[in-house]
């Protein structure tokens, strides 16, 4: 970066990139003295690597991806070999969903009509299909997630495991960039996927898939993306970071306002942004994604701890990892508060301090998560890969 007037920020074409798109298009970045270029990237791995090496100053980022690097997760950039990532702002809650192909949905409905009578749909119907296929010697079903360290991976795994399906033994999991999910389902390469909006709605609109559970049904108000930067960049450019956060907070508040919905849809539908039909964008924006209200922008420590508990559960990091230290290092509500409280009356000060220890809303068909007991929670499930 060459100064206050020059920032490069990356994003993936998803509905929840809205705060970055709006802050640029409506001049919120410019009003903060920032000349921002937005780079549409092909995959989450590209986002991570470009931020790490400085090709991007910051980005729309998977929340667990930032945590994985600090936790030393396999395949991530560890603190010893690469720059650490931090999350000074959360970008949204909800927005993802699990979709299965039309043919698989029909098979599940025949196997267990009651389980398919939702929403939300239980994976019990899928478990019966998987057991029947195994008895016939059929190959395992293939499901796609966007990245190993993502809400989408943990959401799909949790949903499957609650029905007794072992995601590492009973199905095949692959990683696919969000915009390619629909074409892979069309080609018959995958039987289902978990991805962020709008790609689930695109699959339904094209008659290829059926949404079986949305993020808000899985975990009401559950976290998803963050704005990520390296710790070194934040240290060297604190004024630029605070200015960018103020612009993003304004953009998030604007995006949440129903009066701006039509304009937001037009912005996101542009080919340089998400590039899909406005109709499929409207679906998640109408009743699913939250950008700002109820303190959605606060990078909450308990959200970080739940993500880290899933890394432990599925063997991505060791069970003796100090996940509380990792959460504190990566999630930076102090930076969010400094920006929010200097941005004027956009956020109730009480909401800026909305993170803290305690229970979160119960997840789908599972126990409440107590962030003070994140370690025991991670190893308490009958299906998992927790390792010491």
UniProtKB/TrEMBL annotation:
Organism this protein belongs to: Caulobacter endophyticus
Location of the protein in the cell: Endomembrane system
Keyword Cell membrane recorded: yes
PANTHER family, A to Z: ALIPHATIC SULFONATES-BINDING PROTEIN-RELATED, BLL4572 PROTEIN
Tagged with keyword Cell inner membrane: yes
Subcellular location, principal: membrane
A Pfam cross-reference name: NMT1_2
UniProt KW keywords: Cell inner membrane, Cell membrane, Membrane, Transport
Stated name of the protein: Thiamine biosynthesis protein
CDD domains named in the record: PBP2_NrtA_CpmA_like (cd13553)
GO CC aspect terms: endomembrane system
């Amino acid at each position: 970066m060459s100064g206050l007037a020059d920032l490069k920020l990356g994003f993936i074409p998803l509905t929840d990139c809205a705060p970055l798109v709006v802050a640029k298009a409506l001049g919120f970045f410019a009003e903060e003295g920032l000349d921002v270029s937005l780079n549409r990237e092909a995959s989450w791995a590209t986002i991570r690597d470009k931020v790490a090496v400085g090709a991007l100053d910051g980005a729309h980022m998977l929340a667990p991806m930032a945590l994985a690097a600090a936790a030393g997760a396999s395949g991530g950039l560890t603190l010893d070999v690469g720059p650490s990532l931090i999350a000074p702002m959360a970008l949204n809650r909800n927005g993802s969903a699990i979709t299965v192909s039309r043919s698989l949905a029909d098979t599940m409905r025949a196997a267990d009509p009651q389980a398919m009578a939702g929403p939300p749909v239980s994976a019990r119907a899928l478990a019966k299909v998987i057991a029947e296929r195994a008895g016939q010697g059929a190959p395992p079903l293939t499901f796609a997630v966007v990245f190993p360290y993502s809400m989408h991976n943990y959401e799909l795994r949790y949903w499957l495991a609650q029905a007794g399906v072992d995601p590492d033994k009973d199905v095949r999991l692959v990683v696919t960039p969000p915009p390619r999910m629909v074409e892979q389902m069309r080609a018959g390469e995958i039987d289902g996927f978990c991805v962020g909006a709008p790609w689930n709605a695109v699959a339904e609109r094209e008659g290829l898939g059926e949404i079986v559970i949305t993020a808000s049904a899985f975990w009401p108000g559950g976290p998803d993306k963050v704005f990520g930067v390296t710790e070194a960049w934040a240290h060297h450019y604190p004024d630029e970071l605070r200015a960018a956060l103020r612009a993003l907070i304004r953009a998030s508040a604007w995006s949440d306002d129903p009066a701006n919905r039509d304009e937001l849809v037009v912005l996101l539908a542009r080919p340089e942004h998400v590039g899909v039909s406005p109709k499929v964008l409207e679906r998640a924006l109408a009743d699913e994604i939250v950008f700002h209200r109820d303190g959605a922008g606060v990078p909450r420590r308990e959200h970080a701890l739940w993500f880290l508990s899933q890394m432990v559960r599925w063997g991505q990091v060791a069970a003796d990892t100090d996940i509380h230290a990792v959460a504190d290092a990566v999630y930076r509500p102090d930076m969010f508060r400094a920006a929010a409280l200097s941005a004027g009356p956009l956020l109730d000060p009480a909401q800026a301090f909305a993170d803290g220890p305690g229970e979160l809303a119960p997840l789908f068909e599972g126990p409440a998560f107590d962030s003070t007991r994140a370690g025991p929670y991670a190893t308490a499930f009958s299906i998992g890969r927790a390792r010491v």
